[in-house]
Structure formats: C-alpha cells, structure tokens
Amino acid sequence: MARTPQPASSPWSARLHRVRMRARRTLVPLYERLPRRVRDQPLRSTALLLGAALAAGSALPLLIPLWSAYWSLPGAGPVTGLAAGTATVAAASRPRLARLGRRIGRASLPQALLAAWAATAAAALALGLAAWWVMGAPPPTSPRALDPDAVRTLALLSLASAAAPAAVTFPVIAYRRQRAEEAGDTTAAEDRARRRLFTERFPAAVDRLGADRPAVRLGGVHALAHLADEAPDQGARQTCVDVLCSYLRAPDPEVPPHAALSEVRVTIVRVIADRLRARTPWRECDFDFTGVVFAPDTDFPLASFSGDVDFRGARFSDAEGVSFAGASFLGGASFDGAVFSGGAFFARASLTGRVSFDGAVFSDRVHFGEAAFSDRVSFHEASFEGCAVAFTGASGPCPEGLLSAIEPLDPRRVSVPEAWRPER
C-alpha cells in the first residue's frame, strides 16, 4: 500500500514548534509547583489574582503620599533601620523562637499570665511611642493645673490600666483550657489506638510462640518482647512477661525435663536480661521463674528487679557459674531451693528488698563481694558444702542464717566482714 506523501513543514512551523516545546518545558514545572487547590480551581484562582492586582493598582496612588509623609517624620531612617534589623534577627532566630513558644506553651498558668501581662505592657508602650513619634515627637509638658477634662481622662486611663490585666487573663485561661482539652482528647485517642493495636497483635504473637518450627517460635518471642516494649500500660506489659515466663516454666517436649534448653528458651532469657539492664518499664514487672532450668551462659549482670522475682527451685546449670554482678533487687526476690551447679556471683549486688536464699544449694564458688545487704536477707538452711565463700567488702547487717549455714568459718574457705563474725 502506497504511503500518502506528507506536506513539507515550513521553517516557521518548525520554529514555532520549538518555541512551544521550550515554553512547555518551562511552564509545566512551574504549574506543578502551584498548590493543589490552585490547580484544581483555575478560574477562582485567576479571579483572586486579578482582584489582588486591581486592589494593589488602586491603592498605589494612596500609598505614594503615605510613603512621602512617613519619610518626612523625624527619625524615619533610624526607625526603619531598627525595624529591618529586628525583622532580620527574628527571621534568623526562628528555630529559637519556636522553641521559646513551645516552652511558653508548657509553662504553668502563673508563668503564662506573667508573660501575657508583660507582652501587653510592651505592646502598649510600643503603641504609645509610635503615636508620639507620628505626632512629631513633641516634648512633654506639665500643666500647672489640671482641668476637669484632664482629670476625667486620667481617671479613664487608670481604670483602663487596671482592667487590662483582667482583659488579658480570661483569654489566656480560656486558651489554656481549650488546649488542655484538645491534648486530653488526642492522648485518649492515641491510647485507644495503642490498646486496639495491642489487642490485635497479641493473639498472633502467642500463636507463633506455640508453633512447631523453632524459627517461628523465635519470631513469636521477639514479637511479644516488642509488644511489651510498646504496651499501652503496665498491665499489658505484665501479660507479655507472664507468657514468656510460662514458656520457660513449661517442660520442653523436645528434650527431657531439666536438660539442656532449646534456643527459644535461651532467647527468652537473653531478651529479659537485656531489658532489665536497660532503663525500661520491664524493671517494674514481676517475673516467675519457679523451677526453670537455666541453660549455660545465663547471666543477669546489672539487672534491676523493682518488682517481685521468683527463682524458687530454679536450676542454674552452667558449670562456669551464673552472674548477678551489679544487680539490684528492690522488691521481693526468692531463691529458695535454687540449685547453683556452678559458681554464684553476686559481686556489688544491691539486695535492699526482701531477698531469700533459704534452702538454696551452692556447689562451687560463692562471691558476694562488696554487695549491699538489708536486714531482710536470709540464708536459712542454705548449703555451702565444699564451696569457697567470699563476702569480702559486703555492707549492711549480716543476713539471717548465713553464719550457721557456712560454719565452720575456716579463713581458707570463708571470707566475711569482721563485723559479721560472732564475738568470742
């Protein structure tokens, strides 16, 4: 099929096409930078622009005399320079002014009222100086006698000055009340959203913790830990902690009871220990490790237990020992019947709460050096047979039942502060 010959384009049409394309490449980016409201309503935006241009053109003949009158005032140049400098400083200090505004917004009511009164007084002084300057800066005069009109004017000014603080106080109080209500509504909405998200994600995390594959279980451990980190309240956080602790207490179906723990259990202990070392709300939770068999490399150094922690009947199977060095027990802690297969290191620990080691079994080194004890620590019927016991540098009263548990006080095996030794 024969092609229809196209008419040859003239040089003018090619030039016009290039100009049109160049204008398009220039104007289209400018059009895209316009606000969406302007692009969606082009007729209205054009009418507003034309109206503003017409108003500016009509006001120009009025502005020229005002401009001339302004520059005829005394000191117009210095005042203009002062205003320009102030505007420049304010523009350069915009971040600091924003921080100052936030600080004022967080200020107490008396502080906010003082700031509002100071701003009102400064504005009144500025307006008075501006009026005095516009009137030609006349020198002040003091009349010899006040006529009735002057007395009446002074009385009105006094009343206005007295009413000005009240006129400023009520708007400030109303504004702060409205802000507080809005902040309360926002906080309540955020709290509801967090609770709804927690309720939706919690069952899925628990299901993953009970999955058959270990990898899915590990994902459930980290999901529950993340939920506890972002829990809406302490009760929800305690629920996540209870689930993790119950997993540790349950017998592992893959291995015999009291044997080596699975990687999931090791991960749970590590997650809990890491958060107890950091300054997190986990410290306020209660932990129930009753009968848990802790795997090797289980350590809680620098952990802080503000709530109740229960290690009754727990077994620490690491031959190298378990470390609670620098740990703090501010609430109740029970190690009753716990078995330490390796060493037990509580150096520099703070046992200021009710801490009990009654019936605990220590099989190797026991180190409580520089630990701080309260009068609520006990070692009744604890077993230290064949152990090297060191309480060197410990402070506080001697724990109840300790001396009878470590007898005889052989200096080659036992080291306690002199103040704890019985009088001969």
What's the quick description here?
The chain has about 425 residues and is an alpha/beta fold.
State the helix count.
Answer: 11
| Class based on secondary structure composition and strand pairing | alpha/beta
* Number of DSSP strand runs: 18
How large, in whole angstroms, is the Cα Rg? 40 Å
| Mean pLDDT across residues | 80
Give the termini separation: 127 Å
Share of β-strand residues: 5-15%
Tell me what the structure shows.
It is a single chain. The protein is α/β, with parallel strands linked by helices. Helices cover 54% and strands 8% of the residues. The protein is built from 11 helices and 18 strands. The strands form 4 sheets. The chain has a 5-stranded parallel beta sheet. Strand 17 (389-390), helix 11 and strand 18 (414-415) form a beta-alpha-beta unit. Helix 7 runs antiparallel to helix 8 and helix 8 (214-229) runs antiparallel to helix 9 (234-249). The longest helix has 62 residues, at 148-209. It is elongated, with a radius of gyration of 40 Å. Mean pLDDT is 80; it is low at 255-261.
